[in-house]
Amino acid sequence: MKRHQHRGINKMRGLRVLIVEDSEDDALLLERHLRRGDYQPFVKRVETRETMLAALQTQPWDIILSDHSLPHFGSMDALTLLQKESIDIPFIMVSGTVGEDRAVEIMKAGAHDYIMKDNLRRLVPAVERELREANIRRQRQAVENERARLSSILEATPDLVAIMDLEGRIHYMNQAGRQWLGFIKKNHYAGASLLAHYPLWTASLIRDTAIPAALREGVWEGEAVILNPSGGEIPVSQVILSHRNALNQVEFLSTIARDISERKHYEQELQYRVTHDTLTHLPNRILLRDRLIQVLAHAKRNQRLTAVLFLDVDNFKQINDGLGHLTGDKCLRTLAHHLAGCIRESDTLGRYGGDEFLIILSDLRSYSDVETLIKKIRATVSQPLKLNNNDVFITLSIGVSLYPQDGDDEEALLKTADAAMHTAKHSSPGQCRYYRPEMNVRGSELLALETDLHRALEREEFVLYYQPQLDVTTGQITAVEALIRWQHPNRGLVSPRDFIPLLEQTGLIEEVGKWGLNTACRQAKAWHSQGYPIRMAVNCSARQFQQHFLDIVHQILQKQSLDPAYLELEVTESVVMQDTQSATYILQRLKEMGVTLAIDDFGTGYSSLAYLKRFPIHSLKIDCSFVRDVTKNEEDAAIAETILLLGNSLGLEVVAEGVETEAQMRFFQDRHCHRIQGYWIGRPMPAKDLFPLITGRNNP
Ligand SMILES: Nc1nc2c(ncn2[C@@H]2O[C@H](COP(=O)(O)O[C@H]3[C@@H](O)[C@H](n4cnc5c(=O)[nH]c(N)nc54)O[C@@H]3COP(=O)(O)O)[C@@H](O)[C@H]2O)c(=O)[nH]1
Asked: Could you tell which of 469, 483, 574, 654 is best to mutate to test the pocket of ligand 1, judged by most ligand atoms within 8 Å of the CB?
């Protein structure tokens, strides 16, 4: 008994039954039949519309068993109520009176079955079938709901989604896809080929690579381009999937394509930024290197000549510091523009960094093409750059390396061009140097020198030598030029040509220059005190020529109690032409202080008459290079004579420097040059050695 009970309880199935019935006995009868059928029913009997609605709203029901006709309610009313409330519950009519026609009518109205009250043996099987079918209906509905949800997601997604057969014919395409491809109505795509909506190169990629890969491996992912109706290209990231049936045969393909226009735009932008200089928009170091590799590969294959030009703006720091960074930037931009105008379309100009530019010349017919370009560049930069109402003159130091002789890869050519440029910068700024193997040795020497220079001032290794200048009219030594020397502990006396450029680059020139000015003024004062009013000429480099230099000069003159008229500051044309506005100001203040001013190396730079008139200058020094051959070379003689005439007409003193022979001396004497400086009078020498020369000349 216990075992039977146990089995019975296990078999009992719960069932929530709503019975529409006015007879309690009939309801109990139904309940009993259900129990016999191994159900454990939870039963609620209702007999009006209101009680049925309340029961429906209170809890869910598994089945409704309804009598056909109640005093104020019936199966038709119950079905209407269910429809109105959109409730799908198996509905079995249980009646003793209904005729066949009426029964059919009720079935049409939504009842799932009907049972005669005198044949209740059918009840349990009917309930079971209806429960099963209701379950199937629910599952179908769930699938349908799921399908509708997925469809609405596909329709709403901004990506193109399509289903295709194995030939690429479209069977479904979502709204985004229809819009991209211009299918105005929903079914317009039916049978159209997706391949027709790609440009040729992408169509072949999809046909020959992507679809075979998707068929083989199940999926292909890549980038493609889709055409919009007006032929515009939409870059896409695309996935193609193959879908198999139960027999493992591919049944159809699906694809999802995402518009990556924005990403592509950013990628291009990024690529541009990585490879271009933001200031000048020229190729930067990375792209330059890349181009050089390509040019060299081409040159190797076709036995072509190639040249690399390293260009560096001389004294760019002064422009930046003096005129401000914005003007410095403008200077680089303007220069970049001018340089771009000098090269052929096949050449590459780029900004290598800071004030350094690089030009790659490919497919040269001969190396003379390089000379042609250099001449063009020279002619361009000899014109002033118009920067915010300033005429700024710049010079470029250029280093050239040639392929194949100076290196056969990009590394070697860049290194050799750089070495050549640095040699130009150190020995002759503003000039061009072709690479020579010994330049590399010189490079490491320069590095060692630079290290020593940092200690030279505190170790008192600098000395001043003085070179006499002869007054042509009186024959007396009326002035001397102070020239610095470096007494290096190991190298001996180092020429200023080897260390002044280094001092300028490192900024040490300001300290060393101050020391030189002070030492020279002290020496001038010493000679004055001994009865020899000698004028002291002191060189002033670009880096020193700043507004605070005015204070330095003033303080030193005060400290040494030297009459300012006996100090002559020598500046080159390039120093004053770099920033004419600021130069005019400084020169004017110096003049007001009583200091005299000389333009050094005159004739080698701009030689601009307009500026000479504007600047408060006292003298012009004819550069040694015109003096050397003045008696042999007509052109040099003509230049020297022109400078003399120019100086005289502007009321300036003219000094000829580098006079080594009597013939040269006579040349200048005959043309009323005011002062002569050169080995013929005396080499630069320590003050103690010069003194006897002064006393000898000045005490007839
Ligand atoms: N900013 C500073 N620059 C300086 C200073 N001292 C020197 N310098 C500059 O260094 C350059 C080289 O100078 P140096 O080697 O001293 O050469 C000078 C003379 O020695 C040389 N000279 C003079 N007479 C003759 C001659 O008859 N023949 C010949 N071959 N050379 C001769 O000319 C140089 C004079 O230079 P300059 O200044 O142009 O008058 C040089 O550019 C110096 O300016 C310093 O303290 N500060």
From this structure: 483
